[in-house]
Amino acid sequence: MRVVVAEDHFLLRDGLVRLLGAFGHEVVAAVDNGAALLESLLAERPDVAIVDVRLPPDFADEGLRAALAARREVPALPVLLLSQYVEPLYARELLADGAGAVGYVLKDRVTDGAEFVRTIEQVAAGGTVMDPEVVSKLLARKIRDQRLGSLTAREREVLGLLAQGRSNAGVAESLVVTEKAVAKHIGNIFTKLGLYPGESDNRRVLAVLAYLEG
Amino acid sequence: MTAARRPDEQGELGDMKRIRALRRAHHLWWLSVLAMHWTTMVGLAVWTPVPGLLPWAARGMRRLVDRERALAERWSGVTVGAAPAPRTGERERHGVVARYRWLIEDPQRLREWRWVALYSFVAGLVVAVPVGLVGYGLWGVFLACFGWYLSTDAGWDGLWYTAIHVTDVPTGLMAGLLGLVLAQAGVWLAPSMVDRHARFVRTALAPSEQEVMAARIAHLAATRSDAVDTSAAELRRIERDLHDGAQARLVAMGMTLDAAEHRLDKDPEAVRALLAEARASSSAALQELRDLVRGIHPPVLADRGLADAVRSLALLSPLDAEVTVDLPARPEPPVESAVYFAIAETVTNAAKHAEAERLWIDLAHDPERGALRVSVTDDGHGGADPARGSGLAGIERRLATFDGVLAVHSPAGGPTQISMEVPCVLSSPKTTSC
Fold first, then answer.
1. How many domains is chain A partitioned into structurally?
2. Which of B300, B302, B318 lies closest to A141 in CB terms?
3. Is residue A137 part of a domain?
C-alpha cells in the first residue's frame, strides 16, 4: 500500500515509517505540518493516510482539518487519525460524510504493530475503525436516540464492536457466537435503525454514525 | 455616575409618564415616613438597653436603604454605588457611648443613619411638593363646586384659598381655576422631583471613592489568595497523581524489562509474558497521563476553544444536553479554562444531584457589557444552594478570580438555573473557529 504519514514528532514519525516498511508498505510522503499534509494527500492520492490530529503550525486540530479538507476533494480518501486522546466530537466530524474509510485511534495502539497495521488495512479497505476508548466512553452515556433505545443489549454490543472496525468474523470471535448469528444481529440493527439495502451509503458507517450521535 | 435617564424617558414626557412620576413621588413620600420610623427606632435603640433592639433597627434601616437604592436605579436610572459590607458584625454594644461608636464606626452604617435622619425631612419634602401641589389643587377644584355653599350655608366664614377669599360663585370658580393650575404644576414637577430624589439618594448614600477602592483591594486580596490556594492544591494533586500513578508504573515497567533481560537466554516463554506485562504497564501509564492532562486542561479546549469543549461535554454527558453558542471568537485562555471547568462542574452536579433528564447550556458574549454569559438549566428537582454545596462555592471562587459572578436559581422541585457572568474580551476571530 502507498501510505502518507503526517506526524510532527520526529521519533514517532520515524517509528511509523519503519513499522510500515517492516510490514511491506511503502511510505510515499512523511510530513510534519498541516499544509504539507493537504498538499501531499491531494498530490499522492495514497491508499491510506496516517494523520496526527495535532500538527504545526497551530498545534490544534490541523491534522483533522487537513484530512477533512482532503476528503472533500477526494471523497472517501482513507484516513486514519492518530491522537494522544480521543474526542467523540472529532470522531463525529470524521464520520459525518458517511463515506467510511476512516479510523480514529489512540497513539498507544501503535505499540502493537501487527494490530496497528491490520487497522490501517481495514481503513484502506473502506472500513470504519473507532478506538475502543471512544466506544466505551459513548457506551457509558445514556442512549438518547429512540432508534438506538430499541436495540437489545446484544445488538448494542454488536454495534459497539462494529464501531471498533471488526468484521463479522471478528465480532463472532469476540462474542463467541457463530458468524451467522452475527449477520442476523447486524441485519436486525440495520432494520431498527432504518437502514435498508441498496442505499449508496455505507450502511455500517451510517450505523456507527447513529451510534456516535446517540 | 451620571444621572442618565432611560431612553424611554428622554425628550417630551407624556402625561401618563407624569402621572406615573406623581405616583412614584407619593410612594417615596410614604418611604420618608418609614424613614422617620427607623430614625426613631435607631435613636430609641441607642438610648435604651432593650436587648436585640439595635440590630433589629439597623436591619430595618438597611432594608429601607436597599429599597431606596433599587428605586433610584429603576425609576431614574441613577446607580448608587454598591456599598461595601460592614466590616463588623451587627452585634450589640453596651453603654450609650459604645452604641454610638457602633453606629459611627462603619462608614456605611453611619451614612445610612445620617440618610434616614435627613430623608424624613429633606427628601420627604422634596417629593411631597408635587403630591402636595396636586392635593391642594384638587381642594381648589372642590371649592369651585362647593366653596360657595361652604362659606355661606355651612357657615365656614372666611374660607380662603391662597389669596382668594371664597365667598360666592365667581370667587369659587377662581379658586377652582387656580387649583387646576397648581395641580398641573404638581404633575409637571413630579418627574424632576423623582429624579432629584434619586440624585439625593446617591449623594447621601454612595460610598466614597476611597471606600470603594478599599473594598476593591480587599476583594482582590481575597480572590488572589483563593487563586493561589487553588493552584497550589492543584499542583499538589498533579504531583501526587504523577508520583503514585504514571511514575510508579514506569518504574515497574523498567523492573519488568530488567527481569526480561536477565531471562532472555534461559526462558524465552517467561520473557514473552514479561514483555506483555511491560506493554500493559506502558498503556496504563499513558492512560493515567491522559486523564491527568484532561484534568489540567482538556485537549479539546486547547484545540477548539470553549464552544466545542462544551459541546464535547454535552456529547459525553449522561443527560440529554442541548448547547447553544453565540461567541464570535474565543475568550482569553484563562477565562476560557475557568468557565469550562465551572460548566463541567455544574453539568456533573445536574447529573449527580438533581436527577435531571435534560440540560440546556447557553453560552453568549455580551459585547455591550464585555461579558461572557453562561446559563446551565436542568429539569431536575432543584434545591441547589451555594451556601451548602461546596461545589457551587468552589465555582464561585473560581469565577471570582476573574471578577465573575455566579447566580443560582433553584427552587425546591426545580428547575435549576445556574447563571454565570465573567467580564472578558474576545480575541480577534480565529480562522479556525468552529
1. 2
2. B318
3. no
What is this model's ipTM? 0.80
Q: How confident is the model at residue B4 (pLDDT cuts 50, 70, 90)?
A: very low
Q: Which chain A residues contact residue B304 at CB under 8 A?
A: 60-61, 89
Give per-residue pLDDT as tens, B111-170.
888 888 888 777 777 788 888 888 888 888 887 777 767 776 766 666 777 777 777 777
Give Cα separations from B123 to A25, B118, B128, B182, B184 (angstroms): 90, 7, 8, 21, 21
Q: What is the pLDDT of residues B78-108, one digit of tens each?
A: 777 766 655 555 566 677 788 778 777 777 7
Three-state secondary-structure class, residue B166: strand
Nearest to B316 among A53, A112, A141 (CB): A141
Binary contact (B303, A54; C-beta < 8 A): yes
CB contact residues (below 8 A), chain A span 36-65, against chain B: 53-54, 58, 60-61, 65
Shared-domain flag, residues A127 and A151: no
A141 touching B, CB under 8 A?
A: yes
Question: CB distance A88–B316 less than 8 Å?
Answer: yes
Angle at B197 between CA B196 and CA B202, to 5 degrees: 95
A206/A160 same-domain check: yes
**Which of B279, B287, B300 comes nearest A89 by C-beta?**
B300
In terms of domains, do A94 and A19 share one?
A: yes
Smallest CA–CA distance, residue B417 to chain A, in Å, is 22
CA of B306: how far to CAs of B227, B362, B410, in Å?
21, 12, 25
Q: Is B315 close to A58, i.e. CB distance below 8 A?
A: no
- Is A136 inside a domain boundary? no
Residue A161, in any domain of the structure: yes
CB B334 within 8 A of CB B319: no
Q: Would strands A48-52 and A2-6 be described as parallel, antiparallel, or unpaired?
A: parallel
B405-409 and B159-161 beta bridge pairing: unpaired
> Is B308 touching A (CB cutoff 8 A)?
yes
pTM of the full structure:
0.71
CATH number of the domain that residue A199 is part of: 1.10.10.10
The CATH number assigned to the domain holding A9 equals 3.40.50.2300
Domain span at residue A181?
142-213
Beta strands in B64-183 (DSSP E): 159-161, 164-166
Residues A119 and A162 in one domain: no
